Amino acid sequence: MKCAILSVGTEILFGQITNTNSVYLSQQLNLLGFDVLYHYTVGDNDERLAEIIKLAFKDCDLVIASGGLGPTEDDMTKETVCKVMGDHLVEHGPSKEFLLKNAAKLNHKLTENNFKQAMMPSQATVFDNDAGTAPGFALEKDGKTAICMPGPPREMTRMYQRRVKPYLEQFQKDVIYYKTVRLFGKGESSLETELLDLIDGQTDPTIATYAKEGECTVRVASKRATAEEAEQAVSKTVELIEQRVGEYIYSIDDEELVQVVGKKLLERGITISSAESCTGGMFAETLTSVPGISEVFDRSLVTYTYKAKMEELGVKRETIDTYSVYSKEVAEEMALGLWKKSGSKICISITGIAGPGGDMPGKPVGLIDIGCHFRGQTYVKEVQMRNVNRNWNRHYAVLAMLDLINRLIDGRNIN
Amino acid sequence: MKCAILSVGTEILFGQITNTNSVYLSQQLNLLGFDVLYHYTVGDNDERLAEIIKLAFKDCDLVIASGGLGPTEDDMTKETVCKVMGDHLVEHGPSKEFLLKNAAKLNHKLTENNFKQAMMPSQATVFDNDAGTAPGFALEKDGKTAICMPGPPREMTRMYQRRVKPYLEQFQKDVIYYKTVRLFGKGESSLETELLDLIDGQTDPTIATYAKEGECTVRVASKRATAEEAEQAVSKTVELIEQRVGEYIYSIDDEELVQVVGKKLLERGITISSAESCTGGMFAETLTSVPGISEVFDRSLVTYTYKAKMEELGVKRETIDTYSVYSKEVAEEMALGLWKKSGSKICISITGIAGPGGDMPGKPVGLIDIGCHFRGQTYVKEVQMRNVNRNWNRHYAVLAMLDLINRLIDGRNIN
């Protein structure tokens, strides 16, 4: 089933609110195996609204709209849908009754325009609103269906789950299944090059790659007659991807790297501390976003100045003078100094240049050195980042630290 | 000028990402006095993309698009815009040079599809990308303009501010002037109540309040024939707002609180260190986002466990046992211990419960205690946050720390 999602509301066009209804409905319709071809947003304007609905029905079987069902004059979705689909509004008894009952309960006096909400297309299937006063409806004509729901997300999502989803299930043909594979350490174009023949030859499962702040994701989706078939098809393709780029994969279940690492630390009771410089506390902040992490996370010493590095972590002045503060040697001393103080099983450290300035001869912006003391050994790893900007660099540096920890815990190659 | 905002990307139609580009561009185009009539989203599909652009140009003078400029095969915005507007792609010398230079600097090997990014419509005005590799462009034909920018919000917003906005100003008729007043410590509805008569009576300047993660902003805008008139009208209204809620205002120039504080620290050479617990490094991370802050920021000790608090900051076990770890007394000892170690002029500390769990009798989730050693005195402040969720709480806690520092530097009342 081909669908368009339509949002009605001038406040969206002003940028006053973010259109979360479209995100929600996209996810829901995709889960039913429907294809979402368009998102449209129009203001409270009858002509433009009519034109968009007509256009949507050219390609799509279903237009699912939210907004414009309220009691005020600029709420005109119902009227416009009727005009386009050749129906007219009539009073809907149960909806009027509900309005009256509700008003009596709350001791509200209804104004005349309130009753507008009880007017419904004569051939519509009406959907009650459990979280507000404007009912929604579905109107079917010549194989095309329009569904209209109220705009407030709380009302819309509830109506979708309780009334619209069961209604739409009659149209469901296939089952969709997908997996999202996440990778770190490989750029999107290089990833795509390695998967090109799979991507080019694809019909089902489909393979799509996305870049996301230093990480990549690959989404593998299949639409089949049964859940089993779809799942099998996806798993096979995921295996092929693992064969090619498995070295970079940290999750085949769309988990964040910090969640993957946090889970392993908690499950195995591995205590951890960090010594940060260029990341400025971002590593600790990221790790402590994992619920329950206080069981294993002891401390992070954010040592920005030389003085702090020497006082807090016992880094030697001589080491800084000989190798520069941005060096494997300093990263190593930071990790070791942290371990002596905290005794944590994993002591991870970082020093580097987040930029924009701060480079030195032989030490370009974006260079980071990561140290890690783990099971009696201190590992160091140097990475040259792409240097997009300071924040991107810091974010990438945190991912690189997590990646190193993940590899060490797994006993994998760290390079 | 009538505009349509177009987002290109299958991931939006799958509901994998929220369309924040449309929100941003709506706000920006409205600020220029342009009318946004439509938002459209289409996937990476040539035919549908072409149809939408044609439709948009029926009503609109400007189509402003983001997404689909990348190096991969499904990035086709440029080709489609050319087809609709009757142009063709040619190699754009400076863009190719940039790609090569950038790759050389980072020692990256370019794959063939990378060079696709240097192809531009022959009649286009090309916009450099300061935050990524895909340039954008404007193409004008018969009074209709298409503007294409990359999809990643970080790249798009920067390109908009630096290249597209100046380009669009040629189409601007009225002059719009606005100021954004930022406040901390006052909720949106309470703020709106205090400004209600100003808001209700408004025609020009217009006053709009927005809530944003614990902060509030008030945007005062005026659209006049001359810049002077508009500026004067706005300034008068801002003065009225200052008279009413000046106590909570930290910027009338839309600066972030951390920028305001960072600037003061740098200008006055005030060194600073922090001792964090529930914020987990977020304070340091936030402060170190200020360029050049390494001149004054020494260290942050993120002490998550009791042990770390005692070892790193000299917090007494007795104090924790008597008053609980979430107390003014512990915050005070943290600040004092940090000062003894670092000698920084400002030593700020925090302890508290970010939630969701972790509350104790008399210590509800959302309670934070902030300590600050400054000019020989240790101040403490206890705040009960609204407890929306863990991340909101941590963010709010950082703002509360910055607010306390800002007030102490200014010599203002800290409560």
Largest interchain contact: A-B, 85 and 84 residues
Looking at the structure, the CATH topology of the largest domain in chain A is Molybdenum Cofactor Biosythetic Enzyme, Chain A
Corresponding CATH architecture of the largest domain in chain A: 3-Layer(aba) Sandwich
* Radius of gyration computed on alpha carbons of chain A: 28 Å
Mind telling me the CATH superfamily name of the largest domain in chain A?
A: MoaB/Mog-like domain
Q: From the helix content, strand content and strand pairing of chain A, which structural class follows?
A: alpha/beta
Measured distance between first and last alpha carbons of chain A: 46 Å
Residue fraction in strands of chain A: 25-35%
Q: Give the tally of structural domains of chain A.
A: 3
3D shape of chain A: elongated
Task: Give the integer mean of the pLDDT values of chain A.
Answer: 92
For the sheet with most strands of chain A, the description reads: 6 strands, mixed
Number of helices of chain A: 14
| Amount of helix of chain A | 40-55%
**CATH class term of the largest domain in chain A:** Alpha Beta
Oligomeric state of shown chains: homodimer
Count of beta strands of chain A: 17
> Main sheet of chain A: which strands, in order across?
2-1-3-8-7-6
